[in-house]
Design a protein that fits this description.
The complex is a heterotetramer, with 2 copies of chain A (427 residues) and 2 copies of chain B (179 residues). Chain A is 36% helix and 16% strand. With 427 residues, chain A is an alpha/beta fold. With 179 residues, chain B is an alpha+beta fold. Chain B is 36% helix and 14% strand. The chains are: A alpha/beta (427), B alpha+beta (179). At the A-C interface, helix 1, helix 2, helix 3, helix 4 and strand 11 of A face helix 1, helix 2, helix 3, helix 4 and strand 11 of C. The structure holds pyridoxal-5'-phosphate (PLP) (2 copies) and FE2/S2 (inorganic) cluster (2 copies).
Chain lengths: 427, 179, 427, 179
């Protein structure tokens, strides 16, 4: 593996008597000791309300908080730290754009494009925008090979909101191409980077996108911190949506004027300690190097794909080409319900996720109720995949032998896309 | 810090049996009452239909998709309430809920629920409790439906309420997913 | 003091060579070791995305998260944990009511009442609601004795949003009386409990209010967690305002249905570790007992008030009766700008706050640009107040002897309320 | 972990002198350009007025309220730019900003800014840097205002732009707060 398991205190623990194999990093990653210690240090050495105090303690806190903003900006190649807004999570970051930028911009007849593989957090906010503004919501279709049909855009298209990498299929979306198409018709592009930013080098200047949202907790940082990056002039034009301390310029009884970006969007006391500890997570990832992270993900996920395919009992979803696949593998095991699989694997000390992964429309498209998902990160290695596969013996011991699976990357084989096919049922 | 419940205590033989060979699967048409429910945690769905006669649940069926726990629980539920009065069924629902919340030892189960003891292991797996409860809370809704219909229109119901899927474009109806 | 300073790692540190005297708890409190360790433990022993996983690790996390919700409910006397919504801070909690409940409820001609002593976080959201709905925003006036004139309500009054305790004057507002008046005309009451909940026993059932907002970081807990308590039937009727993972029931391509309260209001990954550590803070406060906290605040703040008054060089703001005063003392020192005072005190190792304290309209009412504020909590004692007072020797060394101050609780003495009187200028 | 800057390095004699006896306080009426600014951190305000003649800043005044650092900085700023050309004033603004951001050692200050060396200590107190910069960023706005007015209406300005306070009810105007 790329990072020492020993750096991650939780990975040394046992689960139901077995050493833990954590394969749910797409949900949230484990935290290295350095990040946990940064959190502790924040409270033990520098705790104070940021941006408010004239005393040393508060200045330290403010400086560390704002340095993290600069670090985040550098991490995603943003030219200006004032383009970084701290939110609670990626979901809030996307909702900020939906509520502030989109509600003020879109109108009846406009088009909003998402894709069929979006996480609910990058779909439901746009459904709301469409409902309120009367704009039309279109969906880039999933192709049988697990990639997106980039479709067509028109002058009515105002925003393309798309994930950089699917949290179910692993599909890496060609954002730069989408940006080219969108900008050609005058539309903006929001990238849901919740899975992309943790997995590969991301540079907003090179990508050319207009908004990027991601979460600290999926990239070794603490919970409670999300990021919205937006081009400065877009942020400048956006109205705040949460009002209160810290975001104002002047307040009178009857009305107020608001402060500068990005603070205008950060009302109330900041998540100081969490933000600072997130900075430590970025430092940790920076030491590894994001190109190395990407290579590692490719290798381990590729190994997992290969083993699952060779095994023959699994039904797999998503592209087979590791070049366009992030460190996520979704599958089903015969007719056994994914939640039953996950519970039994859990009994073997293996943490995987089962369910719709907040992608209900995609589940319908795949024709399944749910999938099992194994996702890897810097602390996982091939040995974790081996443990995963061998644990299926226990699943068979309880539920009986499973018929052969199939590769469901090719949706066209025998199945009309969009029809419900119950996972593994009688194939 | 936490006790570590054993998976074997969850997947008891009786559960696996009900899962493989569920009782009372399907859909009554016509029916006197129906209910549809979703477990929001996993998106699994259940459709319940029942016929009512002389104060008792004359017949009951379930279909939908779910994990072994939810399908087994649905199967045992139908067996437990079929032929019982509506009042007794309501008592059994409450009793089962108390078993799941840990408020009742399985030794105190009434005779109709004896088999349900097999689901006691679910208590150690909190997220799966919703699976075990799904059929039972759907029965509550169906009994409410029954009461409403009996007040308004005492006749039989021609068509069971269709499960809602506003996505006309995809034309998807919740399928039946037995093993 | 009430709690051992040794429990709070930061209080043992030195600041500019002197042992730290922390007198800014109204901004944010220090954290006991138990809370910091709970945070560490959350990441080292039970880190997983809550509400999502079928595996043990995630179940642990979910259980701890939901147990904290129950603990919060008990702490404020709520009957049902489902009445507790976790937000980022008190500001977001108030904004949730403003955007979801108030925008859907208020209309032109309705009246919204706040007070002249509100923090921006409980004023600016209502200015926005008034602006959007056309409702009228009225202000309960501050009386010369530092208390509020409860004014009159009519059948047009729909909401009274008032702080439970002022973060500048310390004034404890008679919430129960206000609730009686409001409910008599059919209006609801939102209590900004950011300063009240940390300082005294609060029981929403006894208070009778409809909404209560507060922040973890002001009551020994970590940053990143706020709470909205609302009566169940009000929450049930409220639409969500942030959309995404975790708050839905079913999602289709074209639309979605939303989940149950309170989860409907908690979109995206929860601040799991912070919430759980907040639970530990509540346990710590529970061991002390909130009645004891209140007594302690009264004693220490009373001692500070007495010493500042006796000294004669200070101008004081707020009620003199300790029974209606929380642990906050605001003052000015001659003509010296509060920020200069704070900087010099900082040099002596004493952390106080200077500024408008997010209460610009109140500053105008008091006729000052800013005040110095010393606020105390469970770890402060009289010796901290003694250090504070003796440090003013240094202020005089730098800025020269100060003329006598005055008690500005009585606004009527010589000053028409509302006129600006520059702090200390030539009096 | 952090160096601990001394408070004495902040409150240098020269600063306290400018604070007690500020230069060029008040308001020019008529003026050729004006600007009003607020330090959002503390709510302190400054009003700047200036007169322009033959390419130079012929006269300049400030009033408002603020801490010793901001009042001293305003006083020194007016002394530094009075009588200088607009271009030179702009250069001096940039130079001072660089001093504050740590990009310039005080030894490299041009002769017009020599006194400003006294403000070097502010660099160790980051929240107070805004105090020191307030007058200077207000001058930037006033020079912008000057340029706009010279393009549109070359004549003198009768009334200086009033500082904004929408709270008619309170009738508050930002007062002058010298010590
Ligand atoms: C009275 C009052 N209300 C609201 C707030 C806002 O709290 P937060 O910044 O945690 O949202 C504060 C604290 O700053 C406060 O003192
Ligand atoms: C693709 C994608 N988008 C958005 C999110 C939402 O992230 P968060 O829950 O941190 O807001 C997730 C993670 O759950 C995700 O995988
Ligand atoms: S996992 Fe869906 S009902 Fe059990
Ligand atoms: S504190 Fe307001 S300008 Fe310095």
């Amino acid at each position: 593996m790329l990072a020492a398991k020993a750096d991650f205190p939780l990975l040394g623990t046992t689960m139901r008597g077995r050493s833990l194999v954590y394969l749910d990093s797409a949900a949230t990653t484990q935290k290295p000791r350095a990040v946990i210690e940064a959190l502790t240090r924040a409270y033990e050495c520098g705790n104070a309300n940021v941006h408010r105090g004239a005393y040393e303690l508060s200045e330290r806190a403010t400086a560390l908080y704002e340095e993290t903003r600069e670090r985040v900006a550098r991490f995603v190649g943003a030219g200006d730290p004032r383009e970084i807004v701290f939110t609670r999570n990626a979901t809030e970051a996307i909702n900020l754009v939906a509520r502030s930028w989109a509600l003020a911009t879109l109108k009846q007849g406009d088009e909003l494009i998402v894709s069929e593989i979006e996480h609910h957090s990058n779909l439901v906010p746009w459904q709301e925008v469409a409902r309120i503004t009367g704009a039309r919501l279109s969906h880039l279709e999933l192709r049988p090979d697990g990639t997106l049909d980039l479709g067509a855009m028109t002058s009515r298209t105002k925003l393309v909101a798309v994930t950089g990498a699917s949290n179910v299929l692993g599909t890496i979306v060609p954002v730069r191409r989408l940006v080219g198409m969108a900008h050609a018709v005058g539309a903006l592009v929001l990238v849901d980077g919740a899975q992309m930013v943790p997995q590969m080098p991301v540079n907003v200047t090179e990508l050319g996108c207009d908004f990027l949202a991601f979460s600290s907790h999926k990239m070794l940082g603490p919970t409670g911190v999300g990021v919205l990056w937006a081009r400065r002039e877009l942020l400048e034009a956006m109205e705040p949506i949460v009002f209160g301390g810290g975001m104002i310029r002047e307040v009178w009884r009857g009305g107020s004027s608001f402060g500068e970006v990005p603070w205008r969007f950060e009302a109330g006391t900041s998540s100081y300690a969490e933000v600072v500890a997130f900075g430590e997570a970025l430092r940790y990832l920076g030491t590894i190097g994001m190109a190395a992270v990407r290579e590692h993900e490719k290798t381990v996920a590729g190994y997992a794909l290969g083993r699952l395919l060779d095994d023959g009992r699994f039904e797999l979803y998503g592209p087979l080409d590791p070049e366009i696949r992030a460190g996520v593998v979704s599958f089903n095991f015969g007719a056994i319900h994914p939640h039953d699989v996950a519970t039994i694997l859990d009994g073997e000390g293996i943490a995987v996720r089962a369910g719709h992964h907040c992608c209900m429309p995609l589940m319908r498209k795949l024709g399944v109720a749910a999938t099992v998902r194994a996702s890897v990160y810097v602390y996982n290695g091939q040995e974790d995949i081996d443990r995963l596969l061998s644990a299926f013996g226990q699943v068979e011991r309880i539920f009986g032998k499973q018929r052969r699976g199939a590769c469901r990357t090719d949706l066209s084989s025998g199945l009309a896309p969009g029809s419900i096919e119950v996972a593994g049922q009688g194939r | 810090m936490f006790p570590e419940p054993a998976v074997d205590g969850l997947y008891r033989e009786l559960i696996l049996h009900h899962y493989r060979c569920p009782c009372n699967r399907g859909k009554l048409d016509p029916a006197d009452a129906a209910a549809h429910a979703v477990n929001p945690l996993c998106g699994d769905e259940i459709d319940l239909t029942l016929r009512h006669h002389g104060g008792t649940i004359a017949d009951i069926r379930t279909q939908g998709r779910g994990c072994s726990i939810s399908l087994a629980s649905a199967s045992m539920m139908t067996e437990a309430v079929k032929g019982r009065t509506v009042e007794r069924a309501k008592e059994l629902i409450e009793t089962f809920k108390r078993l799941m919340s840990g408020g009742l030892p399985s030794s105190a189960l009434p005779v109709e629920l004896e088999e349900l003891e097999a689901l006691e292991g679910v208590r150690s797996f909190p997220v799966r409790i919703k699976c075990a409860l799904l059929a039972w809370t759907t029965l509550v809704e169906a009994l409410d439906d029954l009461q409403r219909r009996r007040c308004r229109e005492p006749g039989r119901i021609a068509a069971v309420r269709a499960a809602g899927d506003p996505d006309g474009a995809e034309g998807v109806a919740p399928g039946d997913q037995g093993p």
